[in-house]
Each structure stands twice: as structure tokens, then as C-alpha cells.
Write a structure and sequence with these properties.
The complex is a heterotrimer of chains A (307), B (279) and C (430). By secondary structure, chain B is mainly α. Chain B is 75% helix and 1% strand. Chain C has 2 domains: 190 residues, Periplasmic binding protein-like II (D-Maltodextrin-Binding Protein, domain 2, 3-Layer(aba) Sandwich); 188 residues, Periplasmic binding protein-like II (D-Maltodextrin-Binding Protein, domain 2, 3-Layer(aba) Sandwich), CATH 3.40.190. In chain C, the strands form 2 sheets. In chain C, strands 1, 2, 3, 4, 9 and 10 form a 6-stranded mixed sheet that branches. In chain C, strands 6-7-5-8 form a 4-stranded mixed sheet. Chain C is α/β, with parallel strands linked by helices. Chain C has 20 helices and 10 strands. The chains are: A mainly alpha (307), B mainly alpha (279), C alpha/beta (430).
Chain lengths: 307, 279, 430
Amino acid sequence: MTQEVIRSPQMEQAKPSRMTLRQSERLTGYLLVAPVIACIIALIVFPFFYAISISFTDKMVGTEGNFVGLENFGYLLRQSRFTETIRNTIVLVTSVQLLKLVFGMGIAVLLNQEVRGKNIWRGLILLPWAMPAFVAFITWKLLFAAQGGAINMILLGTGLTTTHVDFMSKELAMPSVIIASFWRGFPFWVISFLAGMQNIPQERYEAAALDGASAWGRFRYITLPGLRHVILVVVLLSTIATTNSFEAIWLITGGGPSNATMTFPVLAYYGLQSLRIGEAAAVSVSLLPVFAVLAFIVAVLLQRQED
Amino acid sequence: MLTRLTLQQKILYYSLLTILALIILFPIYYMVIISLKLPKDIYRTPSLLPINATTQNYVDLFDPDKGNFLLNIRNSFIVAGSATFVSVLFSSMAAYSLVRLRYLYRDWFGRLILLAYLTPGSVLFIPLSVIIARLQLGNTLHGLIFVYLTFSTPLSTWLLMGYFKSIPVDLDEQAMVDGATRIQAFFQILLPLSAPGLIAVSVFAFTGAWNELLFGLLFVTSPDLRTVPVAISYLITGDVFRWGLIMAASVSAAVPVMILYYMAQRFVVKGLSAGAVKM
Amino acid sequence: MNIRQKHFLHFCIVALLAVLVIQPAIAQDRPKLVYWGGLIFSETANNMQVERIEQWGEENNVDVEVVMINQNEIVEKVSAAIEAGTVPDVFEPGTGFMLLLSQTGQLEALDDLYAEIGEAHGGWLPSVDAVMNNPIYEGVKYGIPYGANGNVLFRRNDVLEPLGYPDAPATWEELGEMAIAANNPPDYYGAGIALSNVGDGNLTQTMLQSWGGRIADDEGKTCTLDSPETREFLTWITELYGEGVFPPGATTWDGAGDNTAYQSGQAVFIANPGSVYLYMRDNDPDLAEGTRYSALPDGPVVRVSPAGVVVRSIFANSTNKDLAKQLIANLAEDDFIEEYYNNAIYAPALQGHTGFAVFTESAVHAGLLDLALNGTPAGFPDADNAAYAEFSNNFTIPKMIQRVVVDGLSIDDAVVEAQAVCAEIYAKYE
């Protein structure tokens, strides 16, 4: 594939009879890819560079803004809550991703069996995904609430506790957000894993069963390696999405109590409320190198697997 | 892979499935219960059971003079349906081009698609509104369709590239030897073979567009053009959540999507299975 | 591709570019006015306003497009519109947002209209006038008030009276005592006051100021948060928190937290602009029966009871400024505004409207009128400038309290930390 790109046009001109075919193929290729590229350039490339460029200015809504160098990033670094924001972002993303990985895999294995009503089960899995994110998260806020919250009702009703449990306390706020994000996000993982499992040849399992491998052994040495590629891609896409996700935290805790659940997107939102979009942009732009490194690592791992 | 389950294994297996179902369904059950209650019952006598159940919230929601939620559902169907259709068309064309055809900078186009995922989130809406306004697409459903299809296209293209790779090249080459043009081979041979992949990608695109809130809120102003999530967000006025109506709306809006999922899910797994591995 | 096709293709490309680049100026016979209102809890009031504006449009041969915008997203919506050049002619920004927008030249000066409407209706209420005369505006009026609002203290008389507290608390300390006496979790929590990163949480900023604490110096230039008064207030509220009178979750409540707590019957006191009153009137008369309303209590040093103002502003980019002004004047007419106040929860902004029946007949409206007549201007005793607005938008005071009651920081450390945050914000506006 790489060789094709490097091959210079001059070389092809040496073979006039092939040229027209190659040319028409090239033209068709460009034409077919053009709509997608046009959309991306219009709606993604411009905003991408716009965000980066205003992050170096003191732009407010409605003003041009002056170049201030790294001032916005400095302001971000100097904030007392900055370290907490980094820590929270890491805690949130890794816990949610680990939960999704472990349970997503477990559920996918369960649903990969020949089970009665398989289609119903698989449809059921997609339910948390069938509603707008903000609806899912205000519902979870209500479930966790002290006043009229379903979980507290159960705890009080069954006598497990004698007073309201404050799920929004310093200790429980982050776990609560993690559970809600997990609930909303896991269907994508289950479905992707299930899909990956369809591609693992059945013969391998049969051979392993003949060798007397245990269920765990078959999972460990056949299923897991077979899903490596899917896992990498899903982890990459979902990690970027989870890091950028705003609704779960904003709707459930608003970043609180204190800074217990403050993450980057919520921090950016506060900048936005004061119309300081340069500052808000700096918050999101500061994550870009992290994402780029992540994408690079995944790309390398994928490449290595293909070789 | 587990063909002969012992009784113990069966019990374990089905109890795990039941726990899973409870975890998924409990919040949804609670939504349904709340959608059947009036505010006073929601606040003063909170309960997990449908005490004093009423369909009043649903009646109000679909009352053309009050909420006219049917209009919002219609808008969402138009927006999500069109965005999905165009997105799948564009991305299958692009995926075909990137997988089957050879030309300069092909790899760069592939990488450009990845860029879509790295775009920083929180200020994105400002440059986007500038573009939408320049294109004269402000306050139209077209603008939303354009935005949604663009945001679903990169993932769709990725997934379809994987799917197309799994289909032997011989098939479309054979068709071309038999006299079909490339475009014909693509539409007549490759696309029909890729049906599960196309359906899977459609489900992703549709879900994304159906559930999106922020752009819907910003780019559409007229009440008549509001999509479902925007209409639901308008049930929160200042510091007041009209829970009964919010939940009635959420439940009503989820029903068509659930039916769609139920019908599409077998293709989703099948469609992704080829795509996911080669992605 | 033959020549004709080629020409056609070129024509298409040029036409497409032309459409994209040149904003087509569509000729219009009738002027068009776009109005973005702020959606409030009372549906009747929202509908009344839309109808009135549409009726005005018909009478004056103007196309009007009036949309009620959800206030929770107004900052994003208006920011996007400003950058995209698609702002409405008239909108309802709220004073904090008006202040920010006026600083970047987005809003039209409305001095003449302000004077004209004031004269026509017996003059503006002093508290309203004070907000509009904030030195930050340098004498220019960027909005026309159409009501005053603020927090009214709601209390559960049916709970408090049997405990020997038949009267409203005169001071915050008294409120604290009453809250402790009535506290009986999980049935009743004494003080349904938000301590979270949300507008309601900034009530604690008001409380701090009534303790004599100040955010900045009189010029509004230098942060002076770190003071003995601030420490005294923080000590008091920390002790109150230790008594368990704040409902669980109060440190993470959103704007609806106090509403929910009170409507659940679990909060003895809340401070609310009135949406809870409308809710009770329509849904829970028993709860309304047991509720009494009063002004915010005094602090140990000074009484701070901020009277806010709701305003209509015109964008500087509007092409129909004169029509927009006519419309705003029309919306201040007695026949409309009296009916509007019956359904909305505002105090009047104009002297000529204080005599409406609703302000004596409805307890909450009476409380709001009292607030508008006797309240303090927004920010008082601090200068309400852009730095103060950002300080408030960052919820620095409720966060300072959370640092102590949630994170267990010492009073001293929390004050020092908040002072640093505050100083950094004020430094940006020097």
C-alpha cells in the first residue's frame, strides 16, 4: 500500500496503455472519497484549528482577542484545582474504562452462548443507549438523590440504613458518576466484543476442548487474543469520548462537592460561562497531546499485529 | 462454545443474565414509574410502585396545544433518518475508495478521518455555528442533518473499510471482467454483500443523531423545528424539572428506537463482526 | 465531458461559491424583528408574552419571530449567535450576562428609552435604578428592566410554630437556631440551602457579605476576601453544617435542589425566587398552607438582600432598533404587565406598577415587592463589575465552604486558598 503512494507519476507515464485505466481509477477514487473529505474539512478541520488558535488568545465572545502566548495554559496550571482535575479525569476515565472492559467482556461472553431469546437479550443490552445522554444522567441523578431517590428509598425501606445515604458526598460522588457513565456507555463495548467473537473460528474452541482446556483457558488463550484488535480500537475511541464527556458530571454533581469530580470539560464550561472562550479552548486543547499520544500508541500496536 | 451445560452451570448462567437485566432495567423501570405520576406524588410520597398512576403526562405531552411532542418525534426522524442515509452513502463510497482504489495521498485521507476524533470538544460549537450561519443553514433541519452526518461519517467509514476488506476482491473484479463499471460493481456487488455492515453503521449513525442535544439546541431556534432531546430539555425551565413530563417524553422517544434496535441488532453484531476486526 | 457540460459545471461551481460567500440580501417588504425571550416556569406568563409580541407585530405591520429560549442554555445560545452574526434584535439576558456583553460592546445604549419609560410610569424603583446605574456602565443604560426578582425565604410554619417559633427569623443566626431545633432527619432537614457550584449556592456569598466580609475593595479592583469577617462567617456556617441541618447532597445540588427538597416536604427553610410557590399553588395546596414567606434575614454586620433585575436588551447589530424600542415600550404598558405579573413571579420595576392588586393579595408577590423596595443592589456592598461577575460565575464562596465541610480543610487554609483564586480573577480585569 505504501509503495503505491511512493510510486511516482513519471513511472506510470512510461506505460501509456495502463495510464488511462490508472487515471480513471484515481479519478473515481477521489470522487468517491470527496464528499466525506469535504464534510470533514468544512465541519471538523476548521473548528479543530480554530480551537487551537484561540487558545493562545484572550478572546471573549464578540471580540477578536489578542495573542497572549501561553497565558491561558499558565492560568490553567496555576489553578489550585488543576492537579485535582487531572487526578479526577484519570480516575474517572480509567475506572469507567476498566468497568466497561471487564463487564463488557463478561456480558459479551454470556451473550455469545446459544441462549433462548438471544435476540431479546442483545436488544436489551442496547437500551441504555436508546436515550439521549442527558436523560440517562438526570435519571441517575434522581436515582441517587436523597430526597425521593430510588436507591435511598430501597435502603431506607429495607432497613439497610436508618438515614439518607449521601451519594454526592466526597467519597461517593465519584463512584456514583462512574456507575452512571458505565451504565450509559457499556452497550457499545458489549456489541463490539460480541461482533469480534463472531470472527474467532469455532474450530479453535473445539480443538482446545479436545485438549481438555478449561473454560477460563479457552477464554484466556483463544477469545482474548482473538479480540485484541477490537479491544484496542474500542478503548481508544471510548477513552477519547469519555475524557471529553461533559454531561455525566455536569448533570450529576456539577464537578462537586468541592472539586471531588471536577474534570477538564467541566472546567472549560466554567470559562465559557464568563464568555472567556480563549480560556475554555485552552482547557480542551491541553488534552490534545494526550489524545495524540494515545492514538499513536494504538496505531503502532495495530500495525504490529498486522505484521 | 458451551454446548453441554450442567444444571449448576445453567443456574449460574441464568442468574447472571437476570442480574444483568435488573441493572439495565431498574433505571428504566423508575423512569416509567415517574412518567405515570403527578408532581405531588413524585415529591411527597416517593415510591417505587405506580401508586396513583395516571396517563396525564402522556396526554399533556401529545396534546397539540401544549407539547405537541409528535412534531418533535417527526423532526427527529427526519433529521436522524436523513443524516443516517446520507452518512452511510458517503461513508460507503469513501470506504470503497480507500480500500479498493489506488491513488496519491490515499493514506492521508484515511488519517484525516481519524482527526475527527481528536477535535477538542467544549468550544467546538462556536466555529460550527459560524459555518452553519455562513451556509445559510441556521434554524433549519438541513443544518442539523449536515452536522450529524459529518460527525457520524468518520466512524462509519472506518467500520465499513473493515467490512469491505473482508469481502474478497475477486468478487467485484469478476464483475468488472464481465463488463460492469467500477461504480456498477460497487453498487451491485459490494453493497448488497455488505448489508449487515451497512445496517450496523446505520444504527450507530441513527443513535448518535437521535440523541444529540447541544447542536440541536444551538442551531435550531423555532419551536416547530425542535428535535426530541431539545424538546425534553425544554421541560426543564430554570430551576424546575417537570419530572413526570420529562420521563413520559423520554419513554415515548425511546420506544421507536427500541423497536428499531430489536429489529436491527442481529445485523449489528454480524455487521460489526467483519468490520471490527479489520478496522 | 463536452463543452456545454463543462460550462454548466463551471456555472454550478461559481453559483455555489457565490451562495456560500456572499450573504444574499433578501429583499423584504415588511421589517422583521426577532425576539428571544427567557422561558420561565409559568407557562401562562410565557404564552402571554408571545401573544402580546405577535399582536404588536400585527398592529404595526412588522413580522415578528418570537421564541422563548431555555434560560439554562442562554449563554451558549447567545455566544454562538454573536460569533455567527445571527443575534436576535431583542433578548432577555439577565443582569450578569448583560454586564459581560456590555463590556465587549455587544449591546445598544438605551438611555433615552430608559428615561422615557421611567417617566411614563412614575419613575423606576430606586433599587432597580441602582442596578442600572452601576458605575461599570459609565452612565449608559444597556437594558430596560421589566421586573425585579430575588430570593424570598420560605419556611415551614406547620413545623416551626409547634416548636415555639411562630415568627420569621430576623437574623441568619436565628435561622440557624430554628433550623437546628426543627432538624429531624430523615423527615426534616433544617436548612434547605444550596452549598453547591450553582447560582443558588451563591446565596452564601450574600450571607458572607452580611457578615461584613467583602469580595473586593470599594473600587472593585483588588480582592479583599481574606478578612476576619470572612473567617467568622465560614466558622459559623461550618458549625451549622456540623449540626446536620443541610440535606444530604446540598453540596452538589443543581438549581432544582432546594425546590426538590422543599417540595418533598423535607426542608424547613429554603430561599427561592418563587418557582416553589407557583408549584405549590398548582400542585400541593397543603404544603402551601403550612408555608410562610419573609425577606432574607439580616447578618451580624449589614443587611444584604440582593434585588435582581430582569431586563430586555437590544443588540448593537440589530437593524431594527427603533422598532425594537417601540416593542419594549409596549411591553411595559399597564394593561399587559399587570396581567403578566399575576402569572410571573416578579416584583415591579416601575413605581406606577407597585399598586397592582397582586402585590397585596399574594404573599410571595408581596414579599418580592418588599424586596424590590427595601432590597440591596446586586453585589452590594461590593462593586458589581466584570471581575465580580466572573468571581460569582466560578462559585468561589460555595466552593470555599465545600473545601472546609467536604474536604476538611481548616478555616484558615480555605480562606487563603479562596483569596488566591479571587486575586487571580481580579488580576485579569486590571
